[in-house]
Amino acid sequence: MTRQSGPLARPFNPGEGSAGVKITPSARVLRMLGEIEFDEWQCVAELVDNSFDDFSEIVRSGLDWPDGYKVSVSLPSSANGELVIADTGRGMTYERLERAVRAGWSGNDMHDKLGLFGMGFNVATARLGRRTRVLTTRPGDSEWIGVEIDLDHIQDDFEATDITEPKSDPAQHGTRIVVDRLNRTRAEWLRRNGQALRNVLGSVYSWILDARGFELYVGGTRVKPVRHCRWGDDRFVLYNGKERIPAYIKIDEELQDGVACSDCGQWQLTHDDVCADCGSEKLTVRKRRIWGWLGIQRYLHKTNYGIDFLRNGRKILRWDRQLFTWNNPDGVPGNEDPEYPVELAHQGGRIIGEIHLDHVPVTYQKDAFEYADRSWRSAVELLRGVAPLQPKRAEALGYPENVTPLALLFKGYRRNDAGLRCLVPGDGRKPIHDETRRWGNEFHKGTPDFQTDERWWQAILEHEESKNKGKQIKTTASVPNQPDEQAVMDALGVPADAPASGSTQPTGPEVGGGDTTTRPNEAKGKSETRSERLARYENASTRHSYLSRPFGHPDLGYLNVETRLLKSGEPLLDDSGQAVPVLLDQRAGNELTAFVDADHEVFQRFGADYADLLLVELAPLLKVRARSQWGPSQLVAGIRAQSLKESALDGTTVGAEARDLLNEIRSRMVAELNRSGEYREVFGHLSEEERTAVEESLIASGRVGQVGRLDRDAGFISYLPALTLVRLVEVMPETFLDRRVFRGPYADVKSPSARSLSLARVTGYLADVATIGTFAGEATALQLQRARLSITLLADELAGEE
């Protein structure tokens, strides 16, 4: 038996004639484990798993544990340093330590553990470094006991070295793993990427850190759980104006109990006395449950959307999107295109969730589930069903309505139009996706003002008010500093039980507007001071989320502006008593409040943009502060370019928005024509040139097999030139209007002129969108403005997805 001695390690003999710890298989195989592909964070997580398993056992036992549940990861300070993982757990006996480091050993209860495979410890440590020391102690033990695994010296007798350390306090307890002689590449990554490691571990263990309160420190800094920025439990949309679809759906489904093997972990298909896989008699009846939630993120993101799947509290899959793709259960190929996101796919998606599948087996790397296992397939069927998510596609294929939780969210939130209808913030004209993503970053930073969904919700209400500013939306005196949410909803036809947020703050009597109303101080013979007037404006206004941000330019400096919309019915007066559309109130330092009179005629009659006049007011102030020689137009142009980048009329962006909407329309046309069987009639309207274009597009996309059977279904619609769609709607309006693809009425309209008007509304917008989707690169700014407006109006013309 090999021994090691020194000030912190001396020979340890747990019993007479005892040998060193056996770590089968052979030393050569053990060294080869370091070649198995594990990322650096996975290696660390394998070691953290064991500590969290111990903590979970303490919690389940009900044992009082006053020292808390803490795991500390100390990173190497150089390539020659060491990685240390220490916990405040119970510690281990010698026998348990021997099993824990033995390659191929699994715990007695694989189904409640994060550390599912004993092999994981050996793979992780061998990949990190050449030598690993494990030291452990329990309360009351006289010393730390441990083992040293040195891959450079261990022989095929399979024996590692027993080691011990003295204890300064008999009450000490826990386990410490020290890895040194580190792989230089991995040591360098760990040394340089402490924050990245905290971020990924904060995501992987977010539920454990949040729900169980376990503590994890990396490099002396506490790891914070990475939470989802989702809409609140009470938010919803009204689908087709009547069906309420929540933005948060709780999942909790108890499945029939199953029989599992405690040795190999396999679930049994039959109720025999021994395991069908390993022959073990350790079979136990275990509960099976699918639980968690599905919901909607407050912003769209290109990569950070999808469903997290967890096992025993650890995330196995993060931002997983495989449930967004329908795979034909009959094995017919060609159905593997993702169903979500469809609209504005270049902006990303927003369906998210956390689903716990503690009973579903995972791969040894813990980065995937065993997808062939029937328990995984059962979970998929429960969450998304076997039918397509797209309602009309499912109907065309003969499936009944898909009413699973994911299909419900897909139905209500597949579109990303600004406003209450889709629960998307906007600026009165279009969605503000870039801005809401910035707010999402603030949420993840922990900025207090962004933790609830209030900022997003207020931006939706402001969008609706701006969009419908022709309607008389009253502001009640009881809520002078909040938007009158119910009035907004009433104007939009939304029921009175729609979610409203913000506290009600009682105020004094309503103060009127104009010269005919007596101000409070005027009644006492005292004129109103500037401070009092500004305070009154603040109480009678609401924050404009989109225009509340830093404004400026690198050459001019920046001002932190809070923009507030005044909707009290009285004019906004400057210090000389003149009515102005925008009034600035400079606060301390770079802080500034901008009041905007939403009822001013420049906005109501001439359609001016709030942002344009705000920039006009801010420009001279920034010019003076920077002592700039810029002219007025240069100032406004420069500030807008830097501070309102998302408002730029970019042909690439507008063209992509147009093509996304066209793809949505094509998809609806295909589903409708397959349902009605009218695709042959539509195909007959195609010219020879258009049929040639379809064939060329099919060949270019690799679908050569479909070229000879174009008239067998409506799939050819997906390959038609965009402008051909306009002509088809014009020649066959009864096929596409009347809430079939577009909601405009046609067949039941008696007047020929009214029927032509209903058709022209759709084809006019569609022609604009088709043109910009095809020729966006050559479009002028005015054409892009028109196209963006047509995109919004055409989206409103789409029929509901009932």
Helix content: 25-40%
Content of β-strand = 15-25%
Number of DSSP-assigned strands: 20
Structural class: alpha+beta
Q: What's the mean pLDDT score? A: 83
Dominant shape:
globular
Radius of gyration from the CA trace? Answer: 33 Å
Biggest sheet: strands side by side, in what order?
A: 5-4-3-6-2-1-7-8
Gap from first CA to last CA: 75 Å
What are the low-pLDDT stretches, counting only 5+ consecutive residues below 50? 1-12, 14-18, 104-108, 470-484, 500-524
Tally of individual helices: 24
Oligomer: single chain
State the gist of this model.
With 802 residues, the chain is of the alpha+beta class.
Walk me through the structure:
A hairpin with a 4-residue loop joins strand 19 and strand 20 (591-597). The N and C termini lie far apart (75 Å). Helix 16 crosses helix 17 (632-643). It is built from 24 helices and 20 strands. 35% of the residues lie in helices and 17% in strands. The chain has an 8-stranded mixed beta sheet. A 5-stranded mixed beta sheet has the order 11-12-15-13-14. With 802 residues, the protein is of the alpha+beta class.
Characteristic terms for this protein:
802 residues, alpha+beta, eight-stranded mixed β-sheet, five-stranded mixed β-sheet, 24 helices, 17% strand, globular, disordered N terminus
